[in-house]
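[recover] target loaded
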């Protein structure tokens, strides 16, 4: 029996895992959810003897039931290889009473690599299984991290092309350089004269454009999405929570079955939802601690039961968490409403129309394992500085939000449960804010100078990802107006005659 996936807003839609991965979103434009969360069928002791790749198979086989063993193992081998700078893939570092699960050892030094290095392989396997003959064109709008991770994942993957749009003046210089130096004949990068919202709206319009869909199909292309609501990104994220638990058990730091807590710096709610799914599968997790920056819509939600996006959008030093609509929260709402798509659809309608919805007391009761809190900009910087001075370990800004919230939780709850903090980016990716936090006298230095200084200070080797872009050739020069986005896509694909 295959595990099927339903739309969160329409109980009549049911597809297989490979179909859900291939489409990304259901036809009504909403998310796919597994109809049940499967239970782990390996013991914790067995898991404690597994490599990352073996753990990945033990978890993913339970969700992607229409993949053969060989198909899934091939995807896993192709994803978690020497692209990661350590054979452990996701190592644990202990500092000041917490375990940092370092999810930034992949090619683009942020945790998006954990899922985006496997998604391309899951997608082409899904295309083959469903006898899709078209080439898959991945369209992505990015505010920085996702674009590069998707480019790196899809570069030179046969049967795919990827086109990334970013706001020309809206990403950090390092992020831009990472994207415009991307190699791979199937990659395209475009700076738009507009902001991230305009890039995202432009991409959504292309997905919804039926005429464009037909034009592309006539030339053998179809669009798909690599963004964080594809179930093919969510499931691979469950793996590292299981792996982290198993490593702690293997080291003897916890007993078999002992509960741990997990802290996750949260934006779109994908990463923490994966931790929740891991708990539902039977992994002994007690508290799921959701850490926000000053865009603390989730903190308020856990406090009050009301999700209210009507507020000012803040730009912070943890930009990947600057989000007011956490898309993946819908999957949790659906679940705590008792897998009720009607009830969920009603909430989401309120969110679209009024910017607010409020869940029932019974649903709030289902959230008792979650704890939400947030860190101000000042607290985030302070946390980086203090941990560095105490232990020498340097956090990036996103992970520092989580570390600050962890301290608040410990102080409030007096809970000494062993705790894993998801460390979502290398400090080298946000060097400027990190070095400013350690000592403002670093301000005013250039990006690569700062990276050199960080290498000395933290006593860790400069990641290849930074070393590379220092001298890399700029390969992508295209810029366009917002209104020209679909013309650019057609031009890249050779659909409208005038080839590049
Ligand atoms: C994307 C991202 C996050 C937020 O993860 P979500 O799954 O969207 O909650 C946190 N930190 C970093 C560095 C990220 O790139």
């Amino acid at each position: 029996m295959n595990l099927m996936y339903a739309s969160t807003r329409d109980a009549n839609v049911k597809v297989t895992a490979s179909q859900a991965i291939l489409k990304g979103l259901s036809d009504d434009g909403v998310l796919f959810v597994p109809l049940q969360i499967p239970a782990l069928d390996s013991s914790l002791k067995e898991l404690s003897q597994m490599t990352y790749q073996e753990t990945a198979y033990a978890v993913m086989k339970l969700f992607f039931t229409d993949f053969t063993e060989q198909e899934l193992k091939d995807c896993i081998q192709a994803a978690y290889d020497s692209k990661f700078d350590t054979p452990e893939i996701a190592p644990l570092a202990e500092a000041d009473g917490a375990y940092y699960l370092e999810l930034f050892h992949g090619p683009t030094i942020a945790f998006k690599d954990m899922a985006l290095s496997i998604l391309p392989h899951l997608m082409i396997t899904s295309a083959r299984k469903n006898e899709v003959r078209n080439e898959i064109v991945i369209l992505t709008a990015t505010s920085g991290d996702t674009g590069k991770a998707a480019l790196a994942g899809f570069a030179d993957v046969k049967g795919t092309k990827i086109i990334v749009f970013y706001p020309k003046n809206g990403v950090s210089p390092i992020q831009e350089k990472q994207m415009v130096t991307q190699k791979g004949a199937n990659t395209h990068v475009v700076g738009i004269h507009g902001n991230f919202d305009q890039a995202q709206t432009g991409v959504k319009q292309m997905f919804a454009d039926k005429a464009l869909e037909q034009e592309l199909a006539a030339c053998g292309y179809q669009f798909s999405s690599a963004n964080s609501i594809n179930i093919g990104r969510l499931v691979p994220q469950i793996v590292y929570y299981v792996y982290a638990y198993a490593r702690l058990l293997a080291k003897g730091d916890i007993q078999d079955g002992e509960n741990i807590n997990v802290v996750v710096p949260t934006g779109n709610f994908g990463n923490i939802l994966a931790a929740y799914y891991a708990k539902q599968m039977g992994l002994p997790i007690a508290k799921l601690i959701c850490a926000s920056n000053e865009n603390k819509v989730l903190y308020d939600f856990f406090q009050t039961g009301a999700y209210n996006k009507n507020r000012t959008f803040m730009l912070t030093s943890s930009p990947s968490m600057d989000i007011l609509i956490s898309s993946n929260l819908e999957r949790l709402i659906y679940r705590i409403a008792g897998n009720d798509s009607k009830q969920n659809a009603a909430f989401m309608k309120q969110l679209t129309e009024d910017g607010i919805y409020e869940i029932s007391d019974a649903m709030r009761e289902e959230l008792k394992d979650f704890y939400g809190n947030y860190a101000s900009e000042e607290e985030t910087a302070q946390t980086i500085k203090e941990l560095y001075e105490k232990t020498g370990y340097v956090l990036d800004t996103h992970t520092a939000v989580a570390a600050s919230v962890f301290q608040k939780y410990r102080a409030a709850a007096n809970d000494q449960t062993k705790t894993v903090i998801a460390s979502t980016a290398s400090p080298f990716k946000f060097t400027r804010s990190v070095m400013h936090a350690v000592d403002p006298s670093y301000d005013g230095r250039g990006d690569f100078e700062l990276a050199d200084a960080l290498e000395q200070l933290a006593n860790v080797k400069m990641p290849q990802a930074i070393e590379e872009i220092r001298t890399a050739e700029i390969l992508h020069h295209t810029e366009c107006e917002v209104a020209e986005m679909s013309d650019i896509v057609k031009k890249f694909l050779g659909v409208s005659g005038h080839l590049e």
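[recover] notes: Residues 290 and 372 are 5 Å apart (CA to CA).
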